[in-house]
């Protein structure tokens, strides 16, 4: 199984195949609007603007599993992200990243790069870096800022 075999939902419910991102470097992030790490949206947008023309995408998956920090609807989350942080990268429907109802994409990502003391995602803004061939090459803890992974992204581009 490859990352390109997964289908995910946009905020409006439309299904998208990750095959649409084949050949691009991806940073897949579980996010939340009310988290102490929420200001990382600004850094994610800067990376997106800096590298998008070179084939880089940030894929944003809101998640409300951690301390109820993303309780809003998909539309409200989109309005918050674009209004407060000016985000223009793809925002998908809210997902669960752990447990019985976890999004299969995150099951795959965790198996590829368990790290960080186990396979479970511990908090919002965990980041997975995927190369142009669809290989999950790195997992970054929430405390690792987008700016701190700039060089890792640049190497893959």
Write the layout of secondary structure elements.
Elements: E1 7-9, E2 15-17, E3 25-31, H1 40-51, E4 56-62, H2 74-85, H3 104-112, E5 127-130, E6 136-140, H4 150-156
Parallel strand pairs: 3-4
Antiparallel strand pairs: 1-2, 3-5, 5-6
Q: What is the compact description of this entry?
A:
This protein is α+β, with helices and mostly antiparallel strands and 157 residues long. It has four helices and six strands. A hairpin with a 5-residue loop joins β5 (127-130) and β6.
Describe the fold and architecture.
There is one protein chain. With about 160 residues, the chain is of the alpha+beta class. It has a single domain (about 5-155), classed as Glutaredoxin. Helices cover about 25% and strands about 20% of the residues. It has four helices and six strands. It has helices at about 40-50, 75-85, 105-110, 150-155; strands at about 5-10, 15, 25-30, 55-60, 125-130, 135-140. Strands 4-3-5-6 form a four-stranded mixed β-sheet, covered by helices on one side. A two-stranded antiparallel sheet has the order 1-2. It is globular, with a radius of gyration of 14 Å. The two termini are about 25 Å apart. The model has no long low-confidence stretch (mean pLDDT about 95).
